[in-house]
Specification:
Elements lengths: L2 H6 L8 E7 L9 H12 L3 E8 L3 H14 L4 E5 L10 H5 L5 E2 L1 H15 L9 E5 L2 E6 L3 H23 L2 H4 L9 H4 L2
Parallel strand pairs: 1-2, 1-3, 3-6
Antiparallel strand pairs: 4-5, 5-6
Helix pairs in contact: 2-6, 5-6
């Protein structure tokens, strides 16, 4: 099936739901500009936001939020904003990557390439990444409104219907591992 055929057969945006999780030790909902921008863009594109959370920059908190959203079973995609840089507290990538059953390598690669055209060599300092966890698309983006906008407008929203259509295929659903790595094996 061609990309055009996949897109034509993809579910409607209104049938696809997101969770938005902001990772920050310093922000609250009042000043969470990245998370607010994510919600605005997602809903503006016709998708639903089922849940919005804020968690601290801690591996356990990020994994607990992920597990809760997965167990609720109401999200087709989860967008994490924040914690993708190189400061000692930036652990979103470390928390999520071990859970990825399949990586979406092109997301991080394209995010950095597009960022380069806007901010130059500083783009290499982003560790934006994505993958599939138990049939749900999970994206880790920078927390800045500009980074969130770039990720959603240029990459996630244009392709999410296609991706979710693939993930909803019966043969895909039967192959999800539903085995999260043991905390003992993952470390801090």
């Amino acid at each position: 099936m061609s990309t055009h055929e996949h897109r034509t057969a993809s579910p409607e945006a209104k049938s696809i739901a997101f969770g938005v999780v902001t990772v920050s030790d310093t922000r609250s909902l009042k000043d969470d500009f990245g998370g607010t921008e994510a919600v605005r863009l997602i809903e503006g594109a016709g998708f639903a936001v089922r849940e919005r959370r804020m968690v601290h920059d801690e591996v356990v908190a990020i994994r607990d939020a992920t597990a809760a959203l997965l167990e609720a079973g109401t999200c087709d995609a989860i967008v994490f904003t924040g914690g993708t840089g190189f400061s000692p507290r930036d652990v979103t990538v470390e928390a999520l990557e071990p859970w990825f059953e399949k990586r979406i390598d092109g997301f991080g690669e394209l995010f950095r390439a597009l960022s380069f055209s806007e901010i130059g060599a500083a783009a290499m300092l982003s560790r934006a990444c994505a993958g599939i966890v138990e049939g749900v698309a999970v994206f880790a983006t920078p927390g800045s409104p500009a980074g969130v906008r770039l990720a959603l407008e240029r990459l996630i929203l244009p392709e999410l219907r296609h991706l979710v259509g693939q993930l909803r295929r019966p043969e895909q659903r039967s192959h999800h591992a539903h085995n999260r790595p043991s905390e003992d094996l993952l470390g801090p």
